[in-house]
Amino acid sequence: MTRWKPTDYNPDDFANRRHIGPSPAEMAEMLKVVGADSLEALIDQTVPAAIRQDAALDWPALSEAALLDRMRQVAARNTVMTSLIGQGYHGTVTPPAIQRNILENPAWYTAYTPYQPEIAQGRLEALLNFQTMVADLTGLPVANASLLDEATAAAEAMAMAQRQAKSKARGFFVDRNLHPQTIAVIETRAAPLGIEVIQGAAEDLDPKAVFGAIFQYPGTYGHVRDLAGDIAALHDAGALAVVATDLLALCLLREPGAMGADIAVGSAQRFGVPMGYGGPHAAFMSCRDELKRAMPGRIVGVSIDAKGNQAYRLSLQTREQHIRREKATSNVCTAQALLAVMASFYAVFHGPVGLRAIAQRVHLHAVTIANALRAAGAEVAPDAFFDTITVRVGVGQAGILAAARHRGINLRKVGRDRVGISVDETTDPGVIARLLDAFGITDAPAPAQAPAIPEDLLRETDYLTHPVFHMNRAESEMMRYMRRLSDRDLALDRAMIPLGSCTMKLNAAAEMMPITWPEFGALHPFAPAEQAAGYAEAIADLTDKLCQITGYDAFSMQPNSGAQGEYAGLLTIAAYHKSRGEDRDVCLIPVSAHGTNPASAQMCGMKVVVVKSAPNGDIDLEDFSDKAAKAGNRLAAVMITYPSTHGVFEDTLREVCDITHKHGGQVYIDGANMNALVGLVKPGEIGGDVSHLNLHKTFAIPHGGGGPGMGPIGVKAHLAPFLPGDPQTGEGAVSAAPYGSASILLISWAYCLMMGGAGLTQATRVAILNANYIASRLAGAYPILFMGNRGRVAHECIIDTRPFADHGVTVDDIAKRLIDNGFHAPTMSWPVAGTLMVEPTESETKAEIDRFITALLAIRAEITEVAEGRIEAHQSPLRHAPHTVEDLVADWDRPYSREQGCFPPGAFRVDKYWPPVGRVDNAYGDRNLVCTCPPLETYAEAAE
């Protein structure tokens, strides 16, 4: 008798062994609690049969090893050249310490946006360093914590200038020396807002005809000139001046603030962030102090905690679209936090002396090249430049470009008779020799000694004077500083982050690895297409799979955030209506919609009409029908989220779509909750005309502490001709690069390849199981809102904490107490004020979900103690949460034990997470706004 027993266990089954948390045995236990006979039975009870898809997703899954082998083959199809194209994208050297300890470290890339500041002090400090770096280099006192890319930052600056300028003119002047992709995105943003974009040379500027102007400094063709006179003329006319600039250049050049600029924008890409065929990169914006409350995006500020210790937080209600909705001036709700952190550490790593040395080396290499070309008789412009020149080559343009490519170098084609050359940190004598050889110059050039920057444009002021930029730059010290900051945070590598609508699922290591390979990271977004054949293959296959998943016919990968996807989708709808000669401008949006929905509609020139919710959380069909009829032939679109933001599958979806189409409108289905649909429901088959997908949610791109993200849009065939155009050649561009943050598309592609069609579908089923398990376990302790018509939730559930307010316990108290248990709080007070929206995702194990449930049940017991009068709310552990080590060792005079306060049920003992600060005082922070690194003395003062 043999002991051999065949097994059907497949250790290489990524979906079911690595990505999906609960084991089959654990699922069986959970199904008993939920009261469903099987997983399929639960799905039948949850998802309306009328919308279920017929065809299964059926592509095969790859193992991790097979995936990495496939990725290597695809990467080999890309040709890595030395790209001296410039245009806002430059070769850079990512210090290995930053690559390993930040970019490749899940403590940094799996964190969520720092809306719970007590558990985000590390990345908030790093982002404050970023703001300080930008403010110092641009010479303007307030900077934000990053925007999506330089082009969209410029468009945001235009809108900000219009709001703040005294001039009531409708024109906005655009310097023709701006990068072409920036001009394209500005034009897209301006059109629906009725702003007239006036392009021209700076000498043609009529300040009285505009509310603002934007200049590139240095210009896209290299020009460096004093902008002070133009800016003064604008101010005399009541207009504002925006300067798009380069942080490395500002290490040598007179800063925009010294010229009188009101706003500065640009990209921090060349501070150690790979080009990645377009992104992701951190854009920046800084401004005069008087304008700070109008600045879009996130601002990190300094406040105090409950003990008066210094603490960081997001300031100024920076998610303004959730407050002002259709009156919002921007739909920005995200940033590029991970990339801003990288750029800030690059500045810390090098310090001001190192940055100046790099800038001088770059500049002198450019001067060396210019001198050699001029000595050979070439016509080189401009005379004053930082790192970019153009060379007039006449009819030989194609030959020079080809000769350079033959030597492994990409140059920029400028007009019909010039080529552009932009040198960067990676340029060395070998690159210079190859470049000059392409021009027929074989003698080694003499290294330049004198700058090509006029004396009056050389920087006179110091920068990066804060001690953090003067640390001992030994790698041991850098490594420890990065570790200290990451230890202050709570990310997915420590614990479940159960945020509703944000889908904080596993970001697998195998999915992340390829993005740091040079074959993907070192490509310039405007490199010749034949050099990016690998990217073309990956993007085409990802597009095909997303079309299969959604039922749409075409995708644009350009939007590099979910909110930008909304904006692009509505622009696509608007362009479609316009092509038919129809003047439609009404957008119906349910009251429960994401705040970015009405803000996006407003940015597209649409009038928002709010639709009521029924008592069960569904769209009020009668109100919707009435308002659609009233809009009539002016109805442009309806924006809905499915499953609804209340976490249920509404039965009325098809009716909503039919009503909209009957009146000639288009249906926009927000993809925020796609994690409940993949493999079960195709939005393009149930009435949707366009959807954006949050790849940083459903498709496994990590949130990065508040970005990067990607929000590509899928459309039915009739809308495909109106998708965003190429930012270099087409109309309607919404991002600077043709494929947005192209390098992180690889993560979602890898996720789809390793999960396979069946794995993706199983992930959706388990996400729904996990949410219903939590709802079932908590139902006796907390009211669960919006259980759906069949008593089921979708992939998230809403816990109603409003009744506890009668006893003085707030939703904030519960959120902060969860920190003591070692958890990030669920989504607070959205879509219903005073509630918690919980989404466990499919990646959390039963053990972790049970730990979370244990924590919430223990918190409920503490609420009962307050309700029954055994302890006052203000004396309870709920109000004192979160508890710090300082609390643990200090004198204890509280009516509960140290054990209860610091080690509540669910908390780990040995691996206990200790928040570095107590509860942060938000009101104090807004009253005493500090947006750059405070001097070290204030740390001592706060501790006294």
From TrEMBL:
<dbReference type="InterPro" id="IPR015421">
    <property type="entry name" value="PyrdxlP-dep_Trfase_major"/>
</dbReference>
<dbReference type="Pfam" id="PF21478">
    <property type="entry name" value="GcvP2_C"/>
</dbReference>
<comment type="function">
    <text>The glycine cleavage system catalyzes the degradation of glycine. The P protein binds the alpha-amino group of glycine through its pyridoxal phosphate cofactor; CO(2) is released and the remaining methylamine moiety is then transferred to the lipoamide cofactor of the H protein.</text>
</comment>
<comment type="subunit">
    <text>The glycine cleavage system is composed of four proteins: P, T, L and H.</text>
</comment>
<dbReference type="GO" id="GO:0004375">
    <property type="term" value="F:glycine dehydrogenase (decarboxylating) activity"/>
</dbReference>
<dbReference type="InterPro" id="IPR015424">
    <property type="entry name" value="PyrdxlP-dep_Trfase"/>
</dbReference>
<dbReference type="InterPro" id="IPR049316">
    <property type="entry name" value="GDC-P_C"/>
</dbReference>
<dbReference type="InterPro" id="IPR003437">
    <property type="entry name" value="GcvP"/>
</dbReference>
<feature type="region of interest" description="Disordered">
    <location>
        <begin position="1"/>
        <end position="20"/>
    </location>
</feature>
<feature type="domain" description="Glycine cleavage system P-protein N-terminal">
    <location>
        <begin position="17"/>
        <end position="439"/>
    </location>
</feature>
<dbReference type="InterPro" id="IPR020581">
    <property type="entry name" value="GDC_P"/>
</dbReference>
<feature type="domain" description="Glycine dehydrogenase C-terminal">
    <location>
        <begin position="763"/>
        <end position="883"/>
    </location>
</feature>
<dbReference type="InterPro" id="IPR015422">
    <property type="entry name" value="PyrdxlP-dep_Trfase_small"/>
</dbReference>
<dbReference type="InterPro" id="IPR049315">
    <property type="entry name" value="GDC-P_N"/>
</dbReference>
<keyword id="KW-0560">Oxidoreductase</keyword>
<protein>
    <recommendedName>
        <fullName>Glycine dehydrogenase (decarboxylating)</fullName>
        <ecNumber>1.4.4.2</ecNumber>
    </recommendedName>
</protein>
<dbReference type="Pfam" id="PF02347">
    <property type="entry name" value="GDC-P"/>
</dbReference>
<feature type="modified residue" description="N6-(pyridoxal phosphate)lysine">
    <location>
        <position position="697"/>
    </location>
</feature>
<feature type="domain" description="Glycine cleavage system P-protein N-terminal">
    <location>
        <begin position="452"/>
        <end position="725"/>
    </location>
</feature>
<keyword id="KW-0663">Pyridoxal phosphate</keyword>
<comment type="similarity">
    <text>Belongs to the GcvP family.</text>
</comment>
